[in-house]
């Protein structure tokens, strides 16, 4: 025969025995009511937890791509604005070339305008967003363009002086410039002068940019070019046009020879403007692809969020009811404990 002992200690502790379990359940209910998500996904879902982990990893990846796309879009916007400035300068120069003929006083005006245009082109191609140079290509950490006076001027002057037997120290001001014939000038522009802008000479004297543009991953399996290199042929042609008018003894050339220089400059500037339009269109296409990728990733993220809600979300009304029930049970436990403390074993004797 077994006798169950009744003691004050047993009576006091009976209501309190359930408190740890109730407090744990209360904390869990509080978390679920506050977050709207299961407090312990692994415990509640078991083997289904792997799906939620995969979905959250995918959401994190999509968010990282979206953040990267925002940076790429901002960079493309700045590059487009810079291209607009370059195109505007080229159009203004073309207007001068078309509107001013090789007459008295025109050479000085054109030379000054060309030099100003070359300086503006160099400054724009050296534009930085604070972290990288927009026209540096993959070499975005290096300033792309050299200043004309400190870089390519020496090689241009040397070629000009060597071709026409001019003063090497200052070929632009040599009186012998006036004797250069139109045919000789056209030949010089097509040979030695053009060679100063070919790949090797451009990299050696003009630009430290990379030929390869930077690319960005804009979607899980899609990349686009998100930069422009200062080595684009449009930039070279525009630099050629500015340089041939701004230098090469412009103010001392005969009217016929100056006219041949202006004709070449018009042709070169027109080609540059056309190519600049193509570059701008290429960047516009990249911007459109980024927008389309963002739309698709947003849709994919919404699908993931919906599935995560199905797996992890809790019913707020049910969580509130459970929280209230547990709170009531805890209050009852404390009340019973208080009453038990007032009892004595003598009540059972």
TrEMBL record:
<dbReference type="Pfam" id="PF00669">
    <property type="entry name" value="Flagellin_N"/>
</dbReference>
<dbReference type="Pfam" id="PF00700">
    <property type="entry name" value="Flagellin_C"/>
</dbReference>
<dbReference type="InterPro" id="IPR001492">
    <property type="entry name" value="Flagellin"/>
</dbReference>
<keyword id="KW-0282">Flagellum</keyword>
<dbReference type="InterPro" id="IPR001029">
    <property type="entry name" value="Flagellin_N"/>
</dbReference>
<keyword id="KW-0975">Bacterial flagellum</keyword>
<feature type="domain" description="Flagellin C-terminal">
    <location>
        <begin position="268"/>
        <end position="348"/>
    </location>
</feature>
<protein>
    <recommendedName>
        <fullName>Flagellin</fullName>
    </recommendedName>
</protein>
<dbReference type="InterPro" id="IPR046358">
    <property type="entry name" value="Flagellin_C"/>
</dbReference>
<feature type="domain" description="Flagellin N-terminal">
    <location>
        <begin position="6"/>
        <end position="138"/>
    </location>
</feature>
<comment type="similarity">
    <text>Belongs to the bacterial flagellin family.</text>
</comment>
<dbReference type="GO" id="GO:0005198">
    <property type="term" value="F:structural molecule activity"/>
</dbReference>
<keyword id="KW-0964">Secreted</keyword>
<comment type="function">
    <text>Flagellin is the subunit protein which polymerizes to form the filaments of bacterial flagella.</text>
</comment>
<keyword id="KW-0966">Cell projection</keyword>
<keyword id="KW-0969">Cilium</keyword>
<dbReference type="GO" id="GO:0009288">
    <property type="term" value="C:bacterial-type flagellum"/>
</dbReference>
<dbReference type="GO" id="GO:0005576">
    <property type="term" value="C:extracellular region"/>
</dbReference>
